[in-house]
Structure formats: C-alpha cells, structure tokens
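Much of our argument rests on the idea that a fold can be written as discrete symbols. Part of our work consisted of pairing the sequence of a single chain with a tokenised description of its backbone. We regard such an encoding as a compact summary of how the chain folds. The amino acid sequence and the backbone structure tokens for this protein are reproduced below.
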Amino acid sequence: MRLLLMSDTHLPLRAKRLPEQLIDEIPRADVVIHAGDWVDTDTLDLLESRSRRLVAVYGNNDGPGLRARLPETAYAGLGGLRFGVIHETGPARGREARCAARFPDLDVLVFGHSHIPWDTTAPTGLRLLNPGSPTDRRRQPHHTYMTATVDGGRLTEVELRRLPPR
C-alpha cells in the first residue's frame, strides 16, 4: 500500500496551487494523508476528487468550512497498522513521550504544524512523521512531502521528497 503524506498546504496564501510533482503523486497513492492547515476548501475538494482514499484533519489555520468537513484527529487502519493524524503535537522537546502517552494504541502518528520534517520513533515503537510543507518551507531549505509503503504490516520506504524551488 503506497501512502502520500502532506501537511500545511496553506493555499492560496503561500502558493496559488499545489506543486505539479505533488499532484502527479496523488493517483499513484492508495491513501493520501493530509495533516491540516489547508486554509481553503478547494484543496480539500481536489484531494477528495483525485484520491482513492483520503485521511485528513483540520489545522489551527482552518476555518469553519474545513472544520465542518474534517475531524481534529483521524484514525485509520492501513495494511495492518494503526495510523493517527493530528495537526499539532506541541514542542519538539518531549514529543515522542508525549505522543506515545496520548496515543498508546497507534503504530504511526502523522502530524504537521511546524513545517519541519520529522521522522522519529518513540521508545514504545510509535513512529512519528511530519512531511513538512509543499508550499511554505519557512526556515527549512526545501518544500517537502513524504511517501511511504505499508507492506506486511510494516511501514517501509519512508521518503522525504524535496520539491524543486518555485
């Protein structure tokens, strides 16, 4: 099962549209995961129409239209793994322990908010992934997203993908 992970698209504030490379990945994915801060409903409509399956949440910058359509926290069983998606997890310091305590039944937690790519594993085995942002890199060197594969109940081939400069 191929996964496409993104967050913090902030459209149309940080870009007019999603990068073509990212749009091209959508039909290749079995599941698209978006960890919030869409800002516009057009991007949600686009992903809903082009994704085989979308697992998504709203973020702190998302207004009533998105909050009416999306949960704050989403859960999905994918290929034998228990996934959770949330926008904000708090400060980097102590994140693994805090998230492991809050989500003891998950195998993978996808989050956003910081725009900083993140890939760590808590002592409990919870894998934490932040794909960064494809449109607002902030202090990061690149705009980014992630791809991953779930195979035989294991998360494999987790890759941070860099987008070309705009």
User: Anything to note?
Assistant: The mean pLDDT is 96. The beta strands are 2-6, 31-34, 54-56, 73-78, 81-86, 108-110, 118-121, 127-130, 144-151, 154-162. The two ends are 30 Å apart (CA to CA). The chain has one domain: 2-162.
